[in-house]
Write a structure and sequence with these properties.
The chain is of the alpha+beta class and about 220 residues long. It has a domain of about 100 residues: D-Maltodextrin-Binding Protein, domain 2. The chain is built from ten helices and seven strands. Strands 1, 2, 5, 6 and 7 form a five-stranded antiparallel sheet that branches. Helix 8 packs across helix 9. The longest helix has 14 residues. Its main location: membrane.
Length: about 220
């Protein structure tokens, strides 16, 4: 995606995680793209639990037996999985197993746990629609294994401003206010709505927010 924007094959991407996750790509292509600023702040990865569990910190997993020493993960080799392997070591979570799965597999496990109100800890990130569906929170990470929060930026091609100045003006102002706001759209798409329809519906319901981005 970075290469496509840098070579003008794509006009824009709205999913550049900076400064960490995509930092290597940005360093490589920064002279061939334009960063129009964040559309979402406080993006992060980590270990996530339902609000109803007692654990507040990753450190609590050492003594909380309700999780059966299992962390439900996503695809093996993904960034959050590699960080979780490190967290198990750094926090001394002896006996804990990181169960590799997929994004869909993790959600299936979380769905079952939520229905039964059972303890579960999963690997995840925000923004994600699951925060709009359930009451979830990150476990505190006092050792900073998962790194600091990032921003999700709007990154365009060098030619975009000339081709679509109105779009660029919008991009400079467009920013989601919270994970709940963006989660509303993401959940609608997850529930079967086409992205275009979900976006139109959100725009119709939130004219004041849209006006902040468009001056109209």
């Amino acid at each position: 995606m970075w290469q496509a924007v840098a070579t003008d094959k794509l006009d824009l991407m709205l999913s550049a995680w900076l400064p960490g996750t995509h930092g290597e790509y940005y360093a490589k292509y920064k002279d061939q793209v334009v960063n129009y600023g964040p559309n979402f702040k406080d993006a992060k990865i980590g270990l996530i639990v339902p609000e109803y569990v007692k654990a507040k910190s990753i450190e609590d997993l050492k003594t909380d037996t309700s999780f059966n020493k299992k962390i439900t993960g996503i695809d093996a080799g993904s960034g959050v999985m590699l960080k979780t392997d490190q967290a198990i070591k750094d926090y001394g979570l002896d006996g804990y197993k990181l169960q590799a799965s997929s994004g869909a597999g993790m959600i299936a496990e979380l769905t079952r746990a939520e229905k039964a109100q059972k303890a579960i800890v999963v690997t995840g990130w925000v923004p994600h629609w699951m925060f709009a569906k359930w009451k979830l929170r990150f476990l505190d990470d006092p050792k900073g294994v998962y790194g600091a929060a990032e921003t999700v930026d709007n990154v365009g091609s060098l030619s975009l401003e000339k081709k679509a100045p109105d779009v660029v003006a919008f991009l400079k102002k467009f920013q989601w206010a919270s994970k709940d706001e963006i989660g509303e759209v993401m959940l609608a798409i997850q529930d079967g709505a086409k992205p275009e329809a979900a976006a139109r519906d959100w725009v119709a319901k939130h004219p004041d927010r849209v006006a902040e981005w468009t001056d109209k």
